Known about the structure:
Blueprint: H1 2-17, E1 33-40, E2 43-49, H2 56-73, E3 78-89, E4 96-107, E5 110-121, E6 127-137, E7 147-149, H3 150-157
Antiparallel strand pairs: 1-2, 2-6, 3-6, 3-7, 4-5
Helix pairs in contact: 2-3
Amino acid sequence: MRRSVLAALVCLSLAACETPTLYQAAAKPQAVGYSEIRIEGGRYRVTFQGGDGAPATQVADFALLRAAHLAAADGYDWFRIVDRFGQVEPPHSSSAISIGGGSGSFGRGGGVGLGLGGTIPLSGGPRVSRTLEIFCGKGARPAGPDVYDTQGVIASIGPRATPAAAHP
């Protein structure tokens, strides 16, 4: 009985600390989701902050998807990534549950004790963010590895975003 209660508490604690990575606007700085700054007409800096343990590829895809949505909203056909960088924050070691047990015998002859401890990290993994600076354009797409078709990115990555938040 005690073990099942302890296991249920551990599962609830782990679920409470998990930060899902959804394609959505970030509610505040450093929150999960996207944010952007308009630098000038047709130029943006887009950042996507993943949740704890989110795959770096998912974070990069969601930053690219947000760039495509911004370009499409302004009527641009393509965009070029002119700068990109990422950041990885290590898991927080202070987020943990300690589990311990012990037994002892007390009497005339003395006492014996045994202790056992362990830690279960709750952070879920590192937090990854990706920032892209983009320049948008109209007409024929220029050649280059960092030039993307706006509608092509939306069609390719959009279905992998959460259904309720796939469109801005």
